[in-house]
Amino acid sequence: MFTDPIADMLTRIRNASRAQKSELVLPYSKFKANLAKVLVKEGFVAGLNEIEGKHKMLQLNLKYSGGESVIAGIKRVSKPGQRIYLPADKLPRTNSGYGVTVVSTSKGLMTDKEARKAKMGGEVVCQVW
Fold first, then answer.
1. What is the pTM of this model?
2. How confident is the model at residue 1, as a pLDDT?
């Protein structure tokens, strides 16, 4: 049993991209699927599929450019032992705007840019660059 399934997901993505794997399969949850959709929308992951079966799984197709992973780094910010909540004007800019900070708001998961535009703060889930 995992104490932090989101950190597990991010670690699996990091490890698979460093090992040059084309795809990654991990246990399904709605939160993980929504996080993966944000990563697809922002261009860090090529695609995702939900695999039905005895246990529902989430398949991510990793993205590479010139033999290098598009994901240079991925970091969990808010953890179960220390949740980080910030207002819209205090949300961090990842890698001078070249990366993305994923924020959990009352309207769902969104990037820091979308949250600032909507003037919504929330829990800072992770940063990807």
1. 0.94
2. 54
